[in-house]
Amino acid sequence: MPLRGSGSIAMGGPKLTKSEAPRGRKEAAGVTMQTVARLAGVSAMTVSRALRGEGLVSRETRERVLEVVRETGYVPDASARVFASRRSGFVAALAPSLNNSNFAETLRGMSGVFDEAGLQMLLGDTQYLLSREESLIATFLQRRPEAILLTGSVHTPAAKQMLKRAEIPIVETWEAPSRPLGHVVGFSNKKAGAEMARYLHRRGRRRIAFIGSAADRDRRGFERQAGYCEAIAELGLPEGRIVSIGAPPATMATGGEALPRVLEQWPDTDGIVCVSDLAAFGALSECQRLGVPAPDRVAIIGFGDFEVGRHCCPRITTIGVDSEAIGRIAAETVVEALEARERGEPMARKRHILEFTVIERETA
Amino acid sequence: MPLRGSGSIAMGGPKLTKSEAPRGRKEAAGVTMQTVARLAGVSAMTVSRALRGEGLVSRETRERVLEVVRETGYVPDASARVFASRRSGFVAALAPSLNNSNFAETLRGMSGVFDEAGLQMLLGDTQYLLSREESLIATFLQRRPEAILLTGSVHTPAAKQMLKRAEIPIVETWEAPSRPLGHVVGFSNKKAGAEMARYLHRRGRRRIAFIGSAADRDRRGFERQAGYCEAIAELGLPEGRIVSIGAPPATMATGGEALPRVLEQWPDTDGIVCVSDLAAFGALSECQRLGVPAPDRVAIIGFGDFEVGRHCCPRITTIGVDSEAIGRIAAETVVEALEARERGEPMARKRHILEFTVIERETA
DNA sequence: CTGTTAGCGCTTTCAT
DNA sequence: ATGAAAGCGCTAACAG
User: Fold this and answer.
1) Which single residue of A210, A230, B109, B332 has CA 20 to 30 Å from A261?
2) How many Å lie between the alpha carbon of B126 and the closest alpha carbon of chain A?
């Protein structure tokens, strides 16, 4: 089959593939698979095969095709591939915040697995807002992701309905819900909160306060607070020593503002459970400014093993969770589920609950 | 007009739209625009219009269509829309790291503008690797983004070629390149580095060291270092006091490890320029552990106005750049460029250079 | 190993 | 305000 046109490659020329359309559209794209096929003297199908695998076409055909691809600068059009193959190559991942180092590590863990699997992540941050989660889900589902990974287990009814209808694997992370939507990779924040209080108790503290953000929007922080409350009650320690400030997530500012309030309201406080290391660091720094020695006068325990707590002076005792593993395992679960689906097999719901550990350092 | 078929909606039933295909494909999708059209007693085109705008169809038609959409849980297929309209609705944004709060803020700034404009961001982190930037660009371009936003001005030749061929608006951020690929929204890291050294000099310091990461991979950090060197030379201060440790980005660990080396090698050092606040905080904390008072014995200046520097004790003097504005302006530039293109107008290359300021605090 | 045919679900264009 | 026809660039399925 002879090549149409001359041997030269028109770069960016829009007319290359334009045939006589009786009722044409705007304008043809630049170089398409057709173009490459024609120039290589093969069919589009062969180009498609050459581009994808090794053994699908003969070595020499493949090389010829790749040569033309190189010359023309052809870039396959994923939107057409997606449309034809009905596989988007996307997975959607939502986190409350992309910046928070815990979630960032989780996303990094996912990214490693998905890169490997040739899946591209569609990242969204919900800003700790269920309403935003819902609208992100709506937007992302239009892209036909092959799976969706959520942070947490609380979603709006509309979100849940969309997720169900989408009929794709769902993974909820960072919590341990009793009635999950799909797979789960997480841990019990409540237990973590309880453990924080109990740890301070073991270290001899008896008047233990809690610092967090306005709890209702940060579900996981709220759970930790609930765990703290439960433990405090069980241990028979004075209750109600809670200062919640500002919108989630809790920041260093939260801790900094909350600390003086704690000391004013309950001057005999000798231990503080902070919803995260960021708040803990804010509180610790404020202690230093106020001349309140930590841990001598107040012990402080944080959550999340953030970089700041590992490096500040004194270093912050904290609860460590393997955030990256959460992401990795969640992503592996997705890949498994997709493979099972490919083979037409069902896959049981997975529930992976991780351990967390107290990392004893210098503030408690 | 009565609805065709029964009143019940088949959820996820694959046979709804399936016609007698002589050589069928796998299986039809769930609810498509056709399905909705049929149930609403209109054409697909009308559904398409109803879904997009207000004034395109009559109010009652629109409501009927939306009602069916609600009942069926129809989710438009973006891949088909993209394919037909030749507009992906994507913009690609690459940053060295998503976690770094500077870049995270820039991405947040972009996100605000793009959300508004109905554009979805395809986020990628290059991990400070040009090679990874290149492969991300290759991957992203397959999705036909309408524009691409890069961090920095150094790219591989292959990356540059792909970008040129893509013929989409390009914005480079966080630097002030003399030969940009497209639009620029940034500032001079070199000047920032010089300013850091000069500031310490104005504060009476005369033996000023620099702490950073292994510089070659972090272009912007390297530029700041170069600026520091230049200023030191101009001021006639002792040169060569540079400790570069580890892979970029510079972290608290970098600062923590570098500080004792600085003090060992040049014990009379009285000021330290740190490539970022993270390194500055690491160094500051190490000072505290070693009993080296800051700023009395060593002044410290960081870069980036990170949260930690605003809250630690003493608070870190730093250089502030409006990271979010970088993102916002970059995104606005993209939107403008896209609108210009829509109208068939050309758009001049934009070059927006931001100011930075020394934020005087307690460490210098 | 390679080609042909049909069609993915939507929007463009033109017609009414 | 609505509809009909055509087709976007690619791949599934089948044929050779």
Assistant:
1) A230
2) 12
